[in-house]
Design a protein that fits this description.
Strand content: 15-25%
Helix content: 25-40%
Strand order of the largest sheet: 1-3-2-4-11-5-12
Distance between the termini: 30 Å
Number of strands: 12
Radius of gyration: 20 Å
C-alpha cells in the first residue's frame, strides 16, 4: 500500500492548532529565500513574451528540484523566455514559497505535493494550479545497521522525519500503521519514537547516535549513508511502478490567466530540460551540483551526489493519480481534513507543449480544470 502524504492537519492536533495550514507543509527546511538569478545573456533579436520584463521562478536547493536547477544552470528557461528575464529565487521551505507566490514575489515554482495541496485548499482553490510534473522518488528510510538489521527492528527505535505533518512524516506514520504498530501522531510517541528533526541537522543527530535512523528525502538520505547508515527501505518500492510525485510545478492563477504565453515558455523549457537531463545524466548531475554550489555556497560530495541522483526520476508527468491516492489515504488515516482537490491541475498548456514535442499527453486523474 502506498505511503501517504500530509496536506492539512486536523485542527484537533494541539501542537498545530495555532499554526496556519501553510506552516505545516514544510519539507523540513528553513523559511529563508534568496535571489538565485544568473547573468545569462539574452540572444540577439529576442523579444519579450507578453511584454514582461521578467518571469520569477522559485525552487528549492534540493536534488528533487533538478529540473529547475539544471534549467537555470544551462540556460533553458532564459532561452525560451527570449528578452524576458528569467529571475530565480531559492527557498528552504514550502510555506515560504507559497507565501511568495500568493504575494506575487514569484510567478511559477517547483515545489512538493504537501505545500501545493495546502496552498490550494487554504485559498479555497483560488491561489494556484499545478501545471506540470518534475520528479518522482528520492525518499528513503536510512538506519544505523548496528541497531536495526531488519524492518521489524524499527519497532522501539528513534526515527527522524523532517517535520510534524510533512510529506515524509505522514508517509512514515502510515508505514508504521501498516506494520500494526501504534504511534501518537502529535507527540511521535508509541511503538516507534518519531523525532521531528530539520534535514539540515539530522545527519549530525544520526552521527551522534541520538536517532537510530530517518525517513528523509535526498540528498539527506545519502548524507546519512555517508555517515555509516544503511538504506533499509526505498519509498518508491511501496508504489505501483515505483513512481510517486515528490516535486511538481505550480503557477499563480492570476499569472496563468494574464500571461499564458510566458507559462508556455517556461513549460517548454521544463520539457526540454527534462529531456536533456534524461539523455545526459552525468552532465545533468554535474550541472545540478554546480547550481547547488552557486545557490548555497557548497557543492555535494560525490559519495552523496551519486547515489542521491540515481534514486530520483525526472518526469514531465505530475503523477496526479498518486497525489489523489496520497490524499485519500491521508484522510483515511484520520490525520487530515478531507481536502477538495477538484481543479487543482491545469495541464492544458503542458499537453500542448508535449504534443508539439511529439510526446504523449499526461493525465490529471480527474482533478483537472474542466
Amino acid at each position: 500500500m502506498p505511503a501517504n502524504r500530509s496536506f492539512a492537519l486536523r485542527r484537533g492536533l494541539a501542537a498545530a492548532a495555532a499554526l496556519p495550514l501553510l506552516a505545516l507543509a514544510a519539507c523540513g527546511y528553513g523559511s529563508e529565500s534568496k535571489d538565485s538569478s544568473s547573468d545569462q545573456k539574452v540572444a540577439a533579436g529576442s523579444e519579450k513574451i507578453d511584454g514582461l520584463d521578467s518571469v520569477r521562478i522559485g525552487y528549492f536547493g534540493n536534488l528533487t528540484h533538478a529540473t529547475a536547477l539544471v534549467g537555470n544552470q544551462k540556460g533553458f528557461f532564459q532561452k525560451e523566455l527570449g528578452a524576458t528575464k528569467a529571475q530565480y529565487a531559492t527557498f528552504n521551505a514550502g510555506p515560504s514559497e507559497i507565501e511568495a507566490l500568493n504575494a506575487g514575489s514569484i510567478d511559477i515554482g517547483w515545489i512538493g505535493p504537501s505545500p501545493s495541496i495546502n496552498g490550494y485548499t487554504k485559498s479555497k482553490g483560488k491561489s494556484l494550479k499545478i501545471i506540470g510534473g518534475s520528479a518522482s522518488g528520492g525518499v528513503k528510510l536510512v538506519v544505523d545497521p548496528d541497531k536495526i538489521k531488519s524492518l521489524k527492528d524499527v519497532k522501539g527505535k528513534r526515527i527522524a522525519t523532517p517535520q510534524l505533518g510533512n510529506t515524509q512524516d505522514v508517509a512514515f506514520l502510515n508505514w508504521i500503521a501498516d506494520q500494526g504498530w501504534k504511534v501518537d501522531a502529535q507527540s511521535g510517541k508509541g511503538d516507534v519514537t518519531v523525532v521531528r528533526s530539520d534535514n539540515k541537522v539530522t545527519p549530525d543527530a544520526f552521527k551522534a547516535g541520538s536517532i537510530d535512523g530517518a525517513w528523509v528525502p535526498e540528498p539527506t538520505a545519502s548524507k546519512l549513508v555517508a555517515e555509516g547508515g544503511k538504506v533499509l527501505l526505498d519509498e518508491a518500492t511501496l508504489w505501483p511502478d515505483k513512481k510517486f510525485v515528490i516535486t511538481n510545478i505550480i503557477v499563480s492563477q492570476k499569472f496563468l490567466a494574464q500571461h499564458p504565453k510566458a507559462v508556455e515558455a517556461v513549460l517548454k523549457a521544463s520539457v526540454e530540460t527534462n529531456k536533456w537531463i534524461n539523455a545526459n545524466p552525468e552532465q545533468a548531475k554535474a550541472a545540478a551540483n554546480k547550481q547547488l554550489e552557486q545557490d548555497s555556497g557548497k557543492a555535494l560530495s560525490a559519495e552523496v551526489l551519486d547515489p542521491a541522483w540515481k534514486s530520483i526520476q525526472i518526469t514531465d508527468d505530475p503523477l496526479a493519480a498518486t497525489l489523489h491516492t496520497e490524499a485519500e489515504h491521508a484522510v483515511k488515516a484520520g490525520l487530515l481534513e478531507k481536502p477538495d482537490l477538484a481543479g487543482i491541475y491545469d495541464l492544458t498548456i503542458l499537453n500542448k507543449v508535449l504534443k508539439a514535442a511529439g510526446e504523449s499527453p499526461v493525465d490529471a486523474a480527474g482533478l483537472g480544470t474542466s
